[in-house]
Design the sequence.
């Protein structure tokens, strides 16, 4: 989410509003918001209901959960729950009619959309007729 701050001003100038959804509980989200000085809206989906509704949720298996803990990543602490469900990173550009005009979904959580690629997609969608 911190990479979005690099293009936030330009996205807003194009007339968009950035809304991020995080699997972290509100207390953990505040830490990230402050750490990355995020200006856009970040909502908590610690129950993963939104991620599941979007078809973006996956359950972390026990060996992977243990490996994450070894790396100092405690998904139970982050979400406040023990469901071991995480969202696949995704980005959507939605028009004023609520139609998804661009999407980026990558099941490899380590691969995020490049901010410049997202900015270019926003420009293209903005220039297309609705």
Sequence:
């Amino acid at each position: 989410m911190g990479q979005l701050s690099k293009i936030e001003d330009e996205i807003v100038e194009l007339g968009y509003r950035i809304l991020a959804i995080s699997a972290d509980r509100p207390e953990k989200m505040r830490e990230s918001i402050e750490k990355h000085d995020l200006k856009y809206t970040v909502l908590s989906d610690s129950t993963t209901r939104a991620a599941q509704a979007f078809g973006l949720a996956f359950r972390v298996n026990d060996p992977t959960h243990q490996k994450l803990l070894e790396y100092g990543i405690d998904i139970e602490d982050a979400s406040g729950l023990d469901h071991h469900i995480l969202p696949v990173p995704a980005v959507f550009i939605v028009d004023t009619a609520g139609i998804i005009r661009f999407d980026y979904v990558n099941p490899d959580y380590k691969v995020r959309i490049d901010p410049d690629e997202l900015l270019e997609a926003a420009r293209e969608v903005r220039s297309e007729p609705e």
Strands lie at 19-22, 41-44, 57-59, 85-87, 90-94, 100-105.
